[in-house]
Amino acid sequence: MTETVGARSAARKSAKKGLTIERIFTTPGVHPYDDVNWEKRDVVQTNWKTGETIFEQRGVEFPDFWSVNASTIVTTKYFRGAVGTDKREQGLKQLIDRVVLTYAKAGKDNGYFATPEDAEIFEHELTYALVHQVFSFNSPVWFNVGTASPQQVSACFILSVDDSMDSILNWYKEEGFIFKGGSGAGLNLSRIRSSKELLSSGGTASGPVSFMRGADASAGTIKSGGATRRAAKMVVLDIDHPDIEEFVETKAREEDKIRALRDAGFDMDLGGRDIVSVQYQNANNSVRVSDEFMKAVEEGTDFGLRARMTGEIIERVDARTLMQKVAKAAWECADPGIQYDDTINAWHTNPETGRITASNPCSEYMSLDNSSCNLASLNLLKFLRDDDTFDAATFQKVAELVITAMDISICFADFPTESIGETTRDYRQLGIGYANLGALLMATGHGYDSEGGRALAATITSLLTGASYKRSAELAAVVGPYAGYARNAEAHKRVMAQHRDANAQVKTLDEMDSSIHALATQAWDQVLDLGDKNGFRNAQASVLAPTGTIGFMMDCDTTGIEPDFSLVKFKKLVGGGSMQIVNLTIPRALKKLGYQDESIEAIVEYIAEHGHVVDAPGLKTEHYEIFDCAMGARAISPMGHVRMMAACQPFLSGAISKTVNLPESATVEEIEDVYLQGWKLGLKALAVYRDNCKVGQPLSVQETKKKVEERVEEKVAELVESGDAKVVEKVIYRPTRRRLPKRRASQTTSFTVGGAEGYLTAGAYPDGGLGELFLKFGKQGSTLAGVMDAFSIAISVGLQYGVPLETYVDKFTNQRFEPAGLTDDPDVRMSQSIMDYVFRRLALDYLDFDTRSMMGIYSAEERARQLETGSYEPVTDEDEEEYDEEIQQDVATSKTPQEKAREAGERFGSSSPRPAEVKSGAGAADAREVSREIHSSAELMEKLQGMASDAPICMTCGTKMRPAGSCYVCEGCGSTSGCS
């Protein structure tokens, strides 16, 4: 697979004078550190569950605009040297110098720069961009570069295994070394003959699934890089392998085992002492499907499973039935994912060297066997100007700077095996990407699941990869093309043309994406021209990685290609404590959409209270989609995620690390359709996760019912034994119906919802409590009228048996179906459905203010009062004078929401306003104290919206993690569950 040393040497001889590096951010004669205000901070990290201090380093130096979370994670994860010794790094300057000076030296030593001055500009520009969170290298760079450790710069590895015991045992060994270094690996097991084939000795082969057990046990034993998380790995099997059904059902069967053992009383939580008895839990599994198979699924025909040694068909199966088994297993346990083999290899730049058969654990890196890729990601919000235009020219320049640095790293990098080192040096695969796409779309007024959002994402991705390959072709003129280029030149140029053609197909919708697209078009034209003359320095250039830990390092609101996780976030404060905040991207988006300051303030206040925008005062319903998030009241639909991936995929060398989340109610058929649509839309890989499908996760806020019952029984037994309690006869109370009197007060309300008319009659008990309701909607005798009558009876009987009205209000408000829209009720101006209107009206008529306010239901008078006084609560005579004074003071100061947000940002640890933080979207709006029981944004959203986020608990600090690509990341300490 690898090229000769002679080929590399010949490439170097054809090289010309080095690069001229252009200044982007820096000023001649001024070091980037000199323009930054630095401050000392104490970093103390505890596990909130145990109270144990897990890390402490005091007096570390960071820029004042870095958040507490960013400085904490960088200090704990990336600073080298024993804590408490003088060898420990004491600040960000030392960390950045360690990395940047190593890159600059390697660039000079290997002839990358035209003059010493170009080398200095490169060093200063790289330093500035890192200090100001414009981009970040992947974690192994921060771990290893410039230290005495091996200079491993890659996070992603692909291995290979053949059908021999030597190769299988070597697979175990190589994986172990990669895990030890803190990285992850993937491989395809399809070369191993199936359990339905014979060995040369005459016996039957074990099959690949049996060998997965040994590798899984090894991965579970070796902790990645000495951290507490287990190793990350990917196992792939081709759809035509005779053992494919066993592979598909492997983890689903183990999930059944987890349930059975849990119900028997064993500790099956992630990290529990009994979970280790379950197999195959340390890998992500994926099925590699072909176009032939997917067409057979569409047409409902048979599909042949082929012997590994001869290639002959040894069994025929129904393609649809097999796909249903894949979808059913994913429905049960989220595995396997799916990889589209023909699409992947149609975009492969090196087919003459070998096919792409596998990916890294997070599925974004796809290249040759025994290869690696180092990653870096740009922070998109750093390129959004104050006037809400995207600085595409600077974005292109930074991409070219970063891709240059990434290529330089291969010159000095170490690799876990010689074969990986050879392939990587010969093909020089890189993975530039970005983070904060979701925040950028929201800040610019684009819905994530919208044509405009997808057009903007597509043009940015196209410009990123086009700029990277343009610089790769320029590097080839300076230091030579990659060694494997000559034999793959035609294929490489063909793929470049495919990217250019895809760029030509993008339909731009506004001035922002049009200007980016124009630069991307120019870049791709230069790619083909320069590539034809010089060749290319890199076999691949771009991927979209999870950006978990490095996303926190850059103070990003969103990771990778993901939408915003939630509108309200959890934020730590300097000196301890925490606050809940509304992202500054929200008032910025509202301002761009034309809302006035008073409306912005009211909407932000509403979001801070409820965590979503549904029924926010003054917010137009057509703008709701801009604020849709990954979870909550308006979670983005599964196909919304798929369509965004499809918009960006044609402009990436590799793939996209992303999991498509589905609600717990999703069906097997829906998952099957997602897999089918992913193939039709041209994705390279896809993974799904159905909420609450997995059992083996640590408990967070709530414990299982069984454990609670066990603890109660134990406590009762202790009290009885000590004499503090007596055993009494158990009395069971059954609900009794409280009927309304023969004559009762009632009121009838006429209403319209979306132009449809109806009547609501509510009957009350003598004490004023609601006891019955009648809904007239639709023609008498129609099906709709009959359903309304039956529904009214059911609700009335429930009320009379004691079901609280607030329970019905909670369940039926925010239900969405037609008719919906404007109403004629001033207290409920917009309604999502008839039910939404009816129960809001009932809440206003029959529930007290405190109960309603917890649900976010206010009258028109109360909303008007909130705009004037800042509070929905009724104003007493004693308070009237005080409120008048406050209103006059507010009018005198005339502070905008942005100014108030900036003041809030100051409370987060800076002694002066931080326009950089406001500009980046990392600041806060409507900051308020948060309960001590909340430790992450995921837990905050659970509290605000009353729904659980299905994510594991960090095994380092006990904080609930949040999704990042196809893995999870902890915003408390930066730990990840994957390889990012």
Report what the structure shows.
- Among the domains are: 5-151 and 367-548, no CATH class; 156-346, Anaerobic Ribonucleotide-triphosphate Reductase Large Chain (Alpha-Beta Barrel), CATH 3.20.70; 746-878, no CATH class.
- The protein is globular, with a radius of gyration of 30 Å.
- Strands 3, 4, 5, 6, 7, 10, 11, 12, 15 and 16 form a 10-stranded mixed sheet that branches. A 3-stranded antiparallel sheet has the order 13-14-22. It has a 3-stranded antiparallel sheet with strand order 17-18-19.
- It is an alpha/beta fold and 980 residues long.
- Mean pLDDT is 84; it is low at 8-15, 224-229, 696-709, 890-898 and 900-924.
- The protein is 43% helix and 14% strand.
- Helix 3 crosses helix 12, helix 8 runs parallel beside helix 10 and helix 25 runs antiparallel to helix 26 (834-846).
- Helix 7 links the parallel strand 5 and strand 6.
Quick structural gist:
Residues 154-689 form the Ribonucleotide reductase large subunit C-terminal domain. This protein is α/β, with parallel strands linked by helices and 980 residues long.
Distance between the termini: 27 Å
The structural class is alpha/beta
Count of helix runs: 32
Tell me the major beta sheet: 10 strands, mixed
Rg result: 30 Å
Mean of all residue-level pLDDT scores: 84
Shape: globular
Indicate the low-confidence ranges by residue numbers.
Answer: 8-15, 224-229, 696-709, 890-898, 900-924
Helix content: 40-55%
The share of residues in extended strands comes to: 5-15%
How many β-strand stretches? 24
Function: Catalyzes the reduction of ribonucleotides to deoxyribonucleotides. May function to provide a pool of deoxyribonucleotide precursors for DNA repair during oxygen limitation and/or for immediate growth after restoration of oxygen.
Organism: Arsenicicoccus bolidensis
Domain Ribonucleotide reductase class II vitamin B12-dependent N-terminal: 42-133
Region (Disordered): 867-930
